Give the backbone structure.
Amino acid sequence: MTDVSDGRIPLLRTEALWSGYGTRGVLADVSIAIHKGEVVAVVGHNGAGKSTLLKSLFGLATIHSGRIVLDGMLVAKPTPLNSLKAGIVYLPQRKQVFPELSIKENLALVAQRLPKHDRSDRMNHVATIFPVLRQRWNQEAGSLSGGERQMLGLGLAMIMSPRLLLLDEPSLGLAPDLVVRVLEKARDLAQGYGVAVVVVEHKVKKVLAIADCAYVLRNGRVTFGSRASDLMDEATLLTAYL
Amino acid sequence: MMQVIANGIVAGAGYALFALGFGLVHSTGRFFHMAHGGSYVVGAYLTYVLVSKVGLSSLVGGCGGVLGGAVLGAMMEIAVFRPLRRRNASREGMFLAALGLMVCIQNGVSLVFGDQPVVLRTASVEPGMLFLGARITNVQVCIVATCIAAAASAWIGLQKTNLGMRIRAVASSHELATVYGLRPEAILLLVMVCASALGSLAGILSGFDTDLTPSMGFYAQLMGVAASIVGGIGSVRGSLLGGFMVGLVQHLGVWKLPTQWQEAIVFALVAVCLCIRARGFLRTNWGTKD
Ligand SMILES: Nc1ncnc2c1ncn2[C@@H]1O[C@H](COP(=O)(O)OP(=O)(O)O)[C@@H](O)[C@H]1O
Ligand SMILES: [Mg+2]
């Protein structure tokens, strides 16, 4: 396996992770490292196990063996609640917002996890990062366009002041220029707020343009891992791997 | 004529109260809770026992009945629906399980109390007061008032409180709710308890108005589901509208037609409404998607 850490201590790493759903195995022997302030791209075919990787890290899949290490400490058994407490937020594929709730309610709902006195500050902060949300404050999230919905999804995640953001195909169903906007926003969050971002993406070239490192998944295994400096030259190679 | 309308409104209030709880469960749990009538009949018979056998006052007995209905709802959720949901049961599977529960409950009630109607009304039938030319009893006024108060509280609770927001979030998506740290199972249990309390309240009030029979729950289930579909499943205002429409159509229809047609008219209404508005008149936008 290619070592992509350069000897730095990662925010989160997996060691020989085997996981799946119930007794069903999906991921096999996955070892990856995620660093603070970096964007990690995860690419691969449909059904390769990309979503399962994110779910395993967040606590929505079953870990069969291997280790997840956060801040140098072993995570015994990840659960969504513990992950949220540890500053890990997961944005699922396709469904990242509650369409039937207003934008304000979406944000307020997630903010309920914060101490009372922080809530409105965080909501205002998020509205500053994503100005489009403020304009539509009391409208239903379902009325947002695809791109705006993505922004709300990122906004919900940012309410929690995450340290690790797990994005599952944020570009799904977006027009090409919006894809770039969303991915650049993800990069800005990493650079501006020191968030570690893992992006699962179909649009390989676009995500490599903003990523610091990348992993290719195939049949549940990592078949390729590379640092940012090598990425652009490797782009064609990566495409071949897919 | 006024009497027919008044009767329709009273019946409709009962259906609306039933539809309110049924719709809540449907929006959050996403299945046809065919055993909702179980709380209705059990609440009514429990109140009958507490009032007529134990000798408690109507109010205390009624509260006991509501409590019993709520506990029954909690038991159904924990023992049947939650395990099924954990096994990814289909909506059809949940529907059948609920229907089976309903049959068991009705048979259980009929085993214990017999099939003959029992009477919960305490005093001799009051003549009732005259209102716009229609005779209405205190109980009937109480039914309509309770229905409106329950609907208003449900609406405020869902739209204006933090808990209501969480309930709507769970209705929107169990998965996303989990992702943001809500516990859908706890919310679903709470909803089931509240809905069952409303259902048993409907049964108890109707028990004070007319007689009790073991099949009263099933009948309420049919009418309540019809009301729900006409008004729009899961919408608080839709439950009210649907309940009153079903009640009125039923009574206005029987005014001219033989009584045997009473149920047929209701389902004709359902058919007509589905042709006009396939999703009911006031279906909510929450909790209708997957
Ligand atoms: N909830 C689940 N239960 C069982 N198997 C699942 C579940 N979700 C995904 N899978 C299976 O796991 C494999 C990997 O899926 P996934 O991680 O979603 O792939 P990707 O996101 O790369 O397209 C697929 O074979 C899929 O059928
Ligand atoms: Mg996926």
Observations:
- The pocket of adenosine-5'-diphosphate (ligand 1) is lined by residues A 21, 24, 26, 44, 46-52 (CB under 6 Å).
- Residues 146 and 174 of chain A are 6 Å apart (CA to CA).
- The mean pLDDT of chain A is 87.
